Amino acid sequence: MNNFINDYFIPNEYFYIFLLNRVETEINYKGVEVKKTREYKHNLQSFNKWYSKFLKMNKNHNWDIYFSINPFKEDTNNRYEINVNSYKSLFFDIDLDGEEISKKIISVLGQSTYTIRTSEDKYQLIYQLDKSFKGSFEELKEHKEVLKKLTYHFKTDNTFDLARVGRIPNLINNKNNFEIKYKNNNIKYDIKHFKKYIEDNNIVLPTKTPNKVSKTNNSNKVNKVYEDNVLYDYIDYTKYLKSYNYFKKYNKDLSKVDFTFIKRWKNELEEDFENILSVLRYCRSDLMTKHGHEIERYILNKIEQS
Questions:
Q1: 92 and 123 share one domain
Q2: 159 domain residue, yes or no
Q3: Which domain holds residue 271?
Q4: Over the stretch 38-96, which tens digit does the pLDDT of each residue have?
Q5: Cβ-Cβ contacts under 8 Å for 220 (sequence gap 6 or more)
Q6: What is the SS3 assignment for the chain?
Q7: Tens-place pLDDT, residues 115-139
Q8: Are residues 246 and 284 in the same domain?
Q9: Which of 68, 200, 263, 287 has the fewest Cβ atoms within 10 Å of its own Cβ atom?
């Protein structure tokens, strides 16, 4: 854990450590029971002071611990996309057919900077840039678009948002008591490397978000880190809440309201799973209670149907 973080970040970068408790719950600001979460902003100096405490929380108190893939601005107090300071790495989270898909990605993009095995057949591949890109929020979103295209191309999990977190190696995955392993391959890339692959293979975003069908029983699928209810500064949640409540007046079936709402706003939200999830969670307090175990499949189905 300590070696990985100290290798991944440099002293002047600020990053978030996100914690998710697999056992304990709490009541959120909407009065809904959710899994207990915490997050703390650090630089390397402060992280190393907290290191032993995080280690104890992971091994003795059921906390899963994640780190932000990208660094954040020094003066920010929340993990919103708008507060990301630079684009550091491309990140692939592979929960389905992990070994097969990770080998496929590596065979065409080259060896990843870090190969992280988070469960028996689940992997995270991190392709770190040789120089972190700093720019405006719009410029950072252009880098995000590169990963977004590759994510859909390789059919990995939708983990392209700038505020994304990944599992820290050398800790315990408290979902299944798996010891997270990793390999540092000591290679970094220029963003042009990935843009060239996209151009050479004519990769474009799908006109509709593809429906992902799991090979396992989705009712047994444990939800990923969607419990933190990320809010994005570029989204006007008040506007969407007003719209959602309007549709709700005419239909008591909230599943149908979700469908109508997504159909109305999906283009403005760019059919982006993370954006739609964030808005729906803000508008509908029981969304995770009803669909938490299959939230990704639920929303992608609604997008596809609309």
A1: yes
A2: yes
A3: 219-305
A4: 999 999 999 999 999 999 999 998 999 999 999 999 998 888 888 999 999 999 999 88
A5: 293
A6: CHHHHHHHCCCCCEEEEEEEEEEEEEECCCCCEEEEEEEEEECHHHHHHHHHHHHHHHHHCCEEEEEECCCECCCCCCCCHHHECCEEEEEEEECCCHHHHHHHHHHHHCCCCEEEEEECCEEEEEEEEEEEECCCHHHHHHHHHHHHHHHHHHCCCCCCCCCCEEECCCCEECCCCEECEEEECCCCECHHHHHHHHHHCCCCCCCCCCCCCCCCCHHHCCCCCCCCCCCCCCCCHHHHHHHHHHHHHCCCCHHHHHHHHHHHHCCCCCCCHHHHHHHHHHHCCCHHHHHHHHHHHHHHHHHHHC
A7: 999 999 999 999 999 999 999 888 9
A8: yes
A9: 200
Residues 72 and 39 in one domain: yes
pLDDT: is 244 or 236 the higher one? 244
Burial class for 267, CB neighbours closer than 10 Å (0-12, 13-18, 19+): exposed
Give me the CATH number covering residue 37.
3.30.70.1790
